[in-house]
Amino acid sequence: MNNYKITTLNDFIILKQKDFPYAKGELSSLLSHIGTAAKMVNKKINKAGLVDIIGSSGEVNVQGENQQKLDVYADEMFIGSLLSSGECCGVATEENENEIVFSDSFASKGKYIVCIDPLDGSSNIDFNVSVGTIFSIYRRLTQRGEKVNNEDFLQKGSQQVAAGYIIYGSSTMLVYSTGYGVNGFTLDPSIGEFCLSHPDIKTPEDGSIYSVNEGNYVHFPEGIKKYIKYCQELDKESSRPYTSRYVGSLVSDFHRNLLKGGIFLYPENRTAPKGKLRLVYECNPIAFIALQAGGEASDGNCSLLEITPQSLHQRSPFYVGSKNMVRKLQEFLHLNR
Ligand code: AHM
Ligand code: MG
User: Of 94, 119, 120, 269, which is best to mutate to test ligand 1, by the most ligand atoms within 8 angstroms of its C-beta?
Assistant: First the structure.
């Protein structure tokens, strides 16, 4: 990175507004508010272990999972920031059963809705493992001024206007796309700004990493079992055996594979018959980024972004990463139906 030429996230967002000839800056403002909330959450995460913010909040969320204190903090922070942007009329999050409709006279006229997992992988946080935020932005379907409803939130992933994630790792990064490629920004803590560090990210078409929770192996469908064996076979021409890497934090696993080339798998299994990950606010935004970077994403049957969600917290099998790896996996699935 050129030390003399710094492009901050906000500079970049404004610069890119010209990609949208009729844009009025609403999406730019929304993205910039997400960036600000990310900085607040980052600050809090950095203090984990020092102040009383690790561990369970004592509450259980709509999925029946124990909420961590930081889940609650991140949820409130992002919702508050989206509300105050004035560009977002409603938000769906992992932590809330139903969508939150902003009734505030300003926000209710906002053009966009946001689906977000405020703190994904939060069970890792007590152990200093990287966690992430995943977000997805859609244009509302209802007229401005009307009350947004379920339909606004149950759009196909292909309708996303923008999507991205924040990774709170050894450094904090925000990666996003508005449908014109993928760009990554690293938080420079000395100036408190996300700075462009990974312009125009392209993921390798082939890779040599596979990421899956192999503890579930015996419960996987036959095609997945055979694909895992294929990953482990010796074949110099295709760089096999592949390397197995699994953090157990989707954003971290995906981010590494995006940059290095690889495949992430979360199949259905006997204990999670529809998979574990949530289509609307986990799989779709990650799939959007993958496709924008030249990769592929599937639920094993079709392109992930073509699924019409039936409910907010719907789960889906999820396969994402380097194009040729996802295609190979699909061959295994089809042959073993
Ligand atoms: P969460 O939304 O409750 O944090 O769970 C999602 C996380 C993902 O980050 C990760 O890919 C997956 O759960 C790991 O699941 P498992 O522990 O079953 O491998
Ligand atoms: Mg999650």
Answer: 120
**If residue 44 lies in a helix (H) or strand (E), which one and from where to where?**
helix 26-46
**Mean pLDDT, range 189-199, rounded to an integer:** 96
pLDDT tens by residue, 6-63: 999 999 988 888 777 667 788 899 999 999 999 999 999 988 767 666 667 677 777 6
- Tell how far the Cα of 143 is from the centroid of ligand 1, in angstroms: 36
Amino acid at 215: G
Q: Which of 198, 231, 258 is the last residue of a domain?
A: 198
For the chain, the maximum distance between any two Cα atoms, rounded to a whole number of angstroms, is 62
Task: Name the residue at shortest CA distance from atom 15 of ligand 1.
Answer: 248
**pLDDT value at residue 126:** 82
Residue to probe by mutation, ligand 1, list 62, 131, 210, 250, most atoms within 8 Å of CB: 250
- Domain housing 21: 9-198
Full-model pTM = 0.95
Q: Within a domain: residue 204?
A: no
Two tokens at 121? Answer: 């992988």
Cα separation of 84 and 30, whole Å?
A: 9
Q: Which of 136, 170, 198 is the last residue of a domain?
A: 198
What's the gap in Å between 189 CA and the centre of ligand 1?
A: 28
Q: Helix (H) and strand (E) counts for the chain?
A: 8, 15
Question: What's the total number of domains in the chain?
Answer: 2
Residues at CB less than 6 angstroms from ligand 1: 65, 94, 117, 120-123, 213, 248-250, 276
- Counting every residue, how long is the chain? 337
